[in-house]
Amino acid sequence: MKKKVLIVDDEPNIVMSLEYLMRKNEFEVFIARNGAEALELLSGKVPDLILLDIMMPDVDGYEICLIVKQNPRLIHTKVVFLSAKSKITDIEKGYDLGADLYITKPFSTRALLKSVNELLTD
Amino acid sequence: MSEWMVLVIAVIYLLALFFIAFQSEKYFARFSNNGFVYALSLMVYCTAWTFYGSVGYASTDGINFLAIYTGPLITIPFWWLVLRKMVRVTKTMRISSIADFISIRYGKNGRLGTLVAVACFVGIIPYIALQLKAIDNSVSIISEQISFDSSVFIVILLTVFAILFGARNVDANQRKPGLISAIAFESLVKLFAFLSVGVFVVYGLFNGWFDLFSQAAEKLDMNQLSTLSGDGDFADWFFISLVSAIAFLLLPRQFQVGSVEAGKEEHILTAMRVAPIYLLLINLFVVPIAFAGLILSPDSNSDFQVLSLPLLSGNGLLAMFVFLGGFSAATSMILVSTTALSTMMSNYVFIPLILKSKKEEAAERTDYHNILLFWRRISIVIIMLLAFSYFKFLTSKESLVSIGIISFIAVAQLAPAFFGGLYWKRANNKAATAAIISGLSIWFLFLVLPNIALELSDIFHNALFEAPNNIVTAFTEHMGLSRTSASIIMSLMANVLLYVYFSLATNQSAKEVNQAELFVDIYKYSKSYDSSVAWRGTAYFPDIKSLLNQFIGKDRTDTVLDRYARRHGIDWDANPKVDARVISYAERVLTGIIGPSSARIMVSNVVEEEEIGLNDVLNILQESQEALRLNRELQLKSQQLAKATEKLTSANAKLQEFSDLKNEFLYTVTHELRTPITSIRAMAELLEDHAEMPNEERAQFVGNIIYEAERMTKLISNVLDLEKFESGNQQLERAALDLKILIKEEVQALNPLIGNRNIEVKTEINSHLEPVFADEERIRQVITNLLSNAVKYCDQNEGLILITAYCQDDYVKVNVSNNGSGIKQEDISNIFDKFYQVKHQSVKKPTGHGLGLAICKNIIEMHKGKIGVELAYGMVRFSFSLPVYRK
User: Fold this and answer.
1) What is the pLDDT of residues B89-118, one digit of tens each?
2) What distance in Å separates residue B844's CA from the closest CA in chain A?
3) Which of B101, B633, B665, B719 is 20 to 30 Å from B539 at the Cα level?
């Protein structure tokens, strides 16, 4: 059975790249272009992985992470932040909210794929 | 009873008196320091003159004897004003005699003090002689047989006791509770003795008042005795009352007990209640006894009826008590008078002479303590010797009363200088000297010289000596007054006139001004006397201490200095250099012992003193004003400093803010750069990793990479632009520019951006739009930015963009409105900030990085124009205005 991944980002070209990458690696891909769309999708689906941008216009990535980690239904869902916010305090905040991984932009698709696979086989 | 017996009883009485004095000195606070004792001590006013002489006076002149009491009685209500002020001044200035008082008031003038001391000396010696005479007469009356002249023994006895009572301590200013208690006791003895004999006479010898007065009416010429007959009598009564009122306060002994020995000022209130009762009681039986004497023993000496009447009826015990009453009246007067006079004489006559004659030697000596006591005792001996000689010289011609009155009139000559000094600041040293000398001269001419001349004429049997007496008699008869009244009116008139004249006509020295101020306004200064003394100079503590040691002994010096140090919180060891206040204090301590002028001389030996002239006072004032000014400047400076610090702090805060802004700007820029780079890198990696990727997809990826690269380029050029504007490095190439054409061109260029979206663009440009002076490229940049924003943010379904341009005042105004709802009221103030949209915009930006509006703002402001945004009529309106081009 295919692993499910939810991609949440407001940059179309980044979404496009991630979608291509994950599909090519046998993931079932869901896409949200902002926070609200992501929460709506999460109310129905239980993805194995969320690739989450932080800076979005309405609901930001931190809030989504918090909601996911507090929801028992999503207890097995791994959250990976993909963010341009590179300050130590931002990264610590991400892990404090329960994120499984925090990767700063720009990232390497190869490294991302490797980390994600390791995360999901644990 | 033999004379020896009487003398023994007198000695026993004096020893008892001394015992009382000794005991009360031990229990000082409990016994002698109360209002009642103070009131009784004031009754030292009633001397042997009162005790014996009143009856004599009443026997010849009727109720005129009351005059010496009516004066004090009438003026009792004023004691609270006058006596209290005298006490306050005396205590504050550590005054020990009336000579001190007048001398200190008139600028610590030693010569004036000497004058007062001598005046008192001359005036009081006959008065003391009078007491000796009273004692001697009473001894001879009470003794059954006269075997020898006891007066020598009596004088020696009294001299010894006067020294014991009055000159044991060196500090004349130190209160003498023993003496005061003894005097109070004597006042009681003489009162009870007199009341006893009165009761004995009225109820023993007669059957009560009625019997006595009816017999008197029968046998005596009542007209002569009980009424004031004629003008002269009334004038006598008035003038004697006047000088009595003065004498009650200024006689040396009265000043001693009333002011120097006063405890609390409240005691004066008690005295004001007790004194009238005492004076009433002691006079109650004067007239009955006089009547009884005239009826029963008309041949006896009328001055001694109080003694003769009990003896006549064989009541020896009562006679002895009466003798002791008279003895106490006389001794109390002698004890206090010699104390007061000896202090004045030693301080104003002997000590100044010693200090002047051998100043060098005197400064070296260290045993002043003994020298002072020695001279005070010598003074007492001299006073007693002179009084004794006077008494021996005195014939029986004069009654007790007339000698007393002469003393009163002498002392009254001090009154203008004294009371004037207490209430009139203008009064000065020259005036006081002239007043006292003139008054005393007239007193001498009217009252002393004629008597001496008469005595001499008796001795030398030469009628020439009678001339002064005849002249004065002729003069007073011409005035229609008695000699007493004439002398009082003449002497006091000359006295007061000269006093007023010289006070108005001559000026005071700076020191006198100072003292006058202190005396007249004593209530103002008495609490802060130490700090108000204008006295300069510096001295060292050991010098001051050894100086005081010499005069008051080591123990008392330590006590006095400790008390001062405690009160003012001074540590002598820490600061051996003492200031003017301490010097002034030491001087006042010494003033109480050796008088003010001698104290000044002694203190000036150890102090590098400078006299204070008017210039000095002005300098001091100027110095303090200068200090005030400097203080104000200092305050101003520190205020300025505080302001500067504040500015610096806020500048620093601003710098910090700038630095924070710059950091944030850099962070935001790098953050903005990360986004396109992320896309580029991700896509590039995918292209490389997936060779199997179909061409269509590959072309889209490559296109996106190019798009993101352009986005980066644009961002970087915007950042650089902004940096140039903000740093002021951007140069404008300004020229006359027609905005009409520019706007039209830019609106045309919008079409590709709008594409197939439903957006209506309307332009309303005033056809007479004036040109502006601007850089065409930059203004084009602004307009492009505003228009592309309008396209981005206008309503997505039915977009409307409205462009208007017109002249307003000296500006050309351009408005670009859109019907979008992308901007809220709270955003308006921040919308021109860098990267503002990045954080707060709710609709995803198609392009741009939040730098566009910031750049627009910079450009417009460089052109001295204005840029703003407002929400109006449901539209968002950006507008800018540029100054019209003028040649």
Assistant:
1) 888 887 888 998 999 888 887 889 999 999
2) 7
3) B101
